[in-house]
Design goal:
The protein is mainly alpha-helical. The protein has 16 helices and 2 strands. The protein has a two-stranded antiparallel ribbon. α2 (about 55-65) crosses α8. Keywords: Membrane, Transmembrane, Transmembrane helix.
């Protein structure tokens, strides 16, 4: 790791000393002094500033990417495994996610031309890796965008008492998501992330306080004496266990987005700081919400959890959380649209110029991503099942296996003199990350598919393209 740190510092020093790059302030200047970026090429005042994202804005984007969907399912995870196992699993998954996220920054520093997982895949595995990780990246964020649309439709149903068809609310989410996602740079979206993060945290803590002061949760029996049936330790089935871990992994890791974020930072050397701050903040919020809500609600916790405190609090909470859910949706669509946009225009003059080709391509990419996400949201309208399927099928493939392989790619061929005890420990750890990722991909996908089928087969279950109220849980 000392060797890695030296390389990071060396790259940072070289970047600061290069007159063609302005990593500290992100200024874009015209003429011969226009900065050149390994990903975005030569940038001028005639186009967007792709390097305008500060480290605090990066923290906001990281936390907003995580806190928005995953936190709504965490109390249900504790209901599956119990209080103590839930806390332990959450801390373990969060710590692992911190390492995988930091590994993205380390790899980016040493390979500045990398923009996304597909570029990393090409370095490690050639054309097959490039194609595989590129497809996985697009599918992952489109699925996440679909689940965000579904969450918004639940919120709109809740605050309006199901005023219209749920399919209409999903369409409204898609339209507004497209408009917000079409803002061209993360530097300009970061202020929206702060607004969205604030709104959703307020709504979640309102529910947390409400379930603590109310007599009983909304879905519990409303007559007779009642006490929470939370359990310290539960014995889940294999399917429930892997589903719970899949939900935790989804909640704690937005790693697939981090190459895109560090690529737009003014000072990429601050990426690791942003990772640690955002992951620590997210984990604390997760622990507070999951422990308190599960303690007071027990098996009667709703999913999403914003419905656990009764109709009035549910409407208030969803009303406050909607801006945050819309920002989450915008970020998800933006990630996919920006990836496709760069694939089409990278290396051309249109990438950094406000031409008709530039704007037409950009809007087509975000619109196309929105349409596919809308079809997914309408076709798989089961909140927990969709979130679990996304994580199991795609999240671990992008966050676990490749980050372990990144360490091997950069460190396996170190001179024998540098292969000490720490190197051997990291070999074991990186291999462990790859193996765990593979296991969770297979087992988690099976568990989530079983859960979706069971949910759709239930009497009164939400059906694809349905007008039924999906906020009643």
């Amino acid at each position: 790791m000392a060797n890695t740190s030296e390389k990071i510092n060396q790259v940072g020093a070289e970047e600061k000393g290069n007159p063609n790059i302005s990593p500290q302030d992100g200024d874009i200047v015209d003429g011969n002094s226009a900065p050149h970026d390994e990903v975005f090429g030569t940038m001028t005042e005639d186009g967007p500033n792709y390097r305008g994202l500060g480290w605090l804005g990066t923290v906001a984007l990281m936390m907003k990417t995580q806190i928005g969907l995953g936190v709504l399912s965490l109390p249900k995870v504790f209901d599956l495994v119990g209080m103590v196992p839930g806390v332990l699993l959450l801390c373990i998954v969060a710590a692992t996610a911190t390492w995988t996220s930091c590994m993205v920054g380390v790899f980016k520093f040493q390979h500045r031309e990398v923009y996304s997982m597909d570029d990393a895949g090409r370095l490690m595995f050639g054309k097959i890796g490039y194609f595989f990780f590129g497809v996985a990246f697009c599918l992952y964020w489109i699925f996440v965008a679909g689940s965000a649309m579904l969450g918004i439709s639940i919120g709109l149903n809740a605050i309006s008492s199901h005023a219209t068809c749920t399919a209409t609310f999903v369409a409204v989410a898609a339209i507004l998501g497209f408009l917000l996602a079409s803002i061209r740079t993360f530097g300009r979206i970061s202020w929206l992330a702060w607004v969205g993060l604030t709104c959703i945290l307020i709504s979640i803590f309102i529910v947390t306080i409400a379930v603590g002061i109310q007599d009983r949760p909304a879905s519990a029996p409303q007559e007779g004496p009642w006490s929470s049936d939370f359990e310290i330790i539960r014995t889940p089935t294999f399917t429930d266990g892997v589903r719970a871990v899949s939900l935790l992994t989804f909640a704690c890791s937005a790693t697939p987005a981090y190459f895109s974020l560090v690529a737009e930072m003014r000072d990429p050397q601050l990426f690791q700081r942003a990772v640690v701050v955002s992951q620590a903040g997210s984990t604390i919020v997760y622990l507070v919400i999951a422990v308190v809500v599960y303690y007071f609600c027990g098996s009667y916790v709703s999913s999403p959890a914003l419905g656990s405190a009764g109709p009035l609090i549910k409407k208030i909470a969803y009303g406050l959380s909607l801006p945050g859910l819309f920002v989450t949706l915008a970020i998800d669509i933006h990630l996919t649209g920006k990836y496709i946009f760069l694939q089409l225009l990278r290396g051309t003059k249109h990438l950094n110029a406000n031409t008709w080709v530039h704007w037409g391509t950009w809007l087509a990419c975000t619109f196309g991503s929105t349409i596919v996400a809308y079809l997914i949201a309408s076709g798989i309208p089961v909140f927990d099942g969709l979130v679990s399927l996304i994580c199991a099928l795609l999240s671990t493939v992008l966050a676990y296996q490749p980050t372990g392989c990144m360490w091997f790619y950069d460190n396996w061929n170190l001179p024998k003199a540098q292969r000490g005890s720490w190197w051997k420990l990291m070999v074991f750890w990186s291999a462990f990350i790859v193996v765990v990722g593979c296991f969770m991909t297979v087992a988690g996908t099976y568990g989530s598919i079983v859960g979706i089928i069971d949910s759709l087969n239930k009497s009164g279950g939400t059906k694809p393209w349905s007008c039924a109220d999906n906020s009643s849980s």
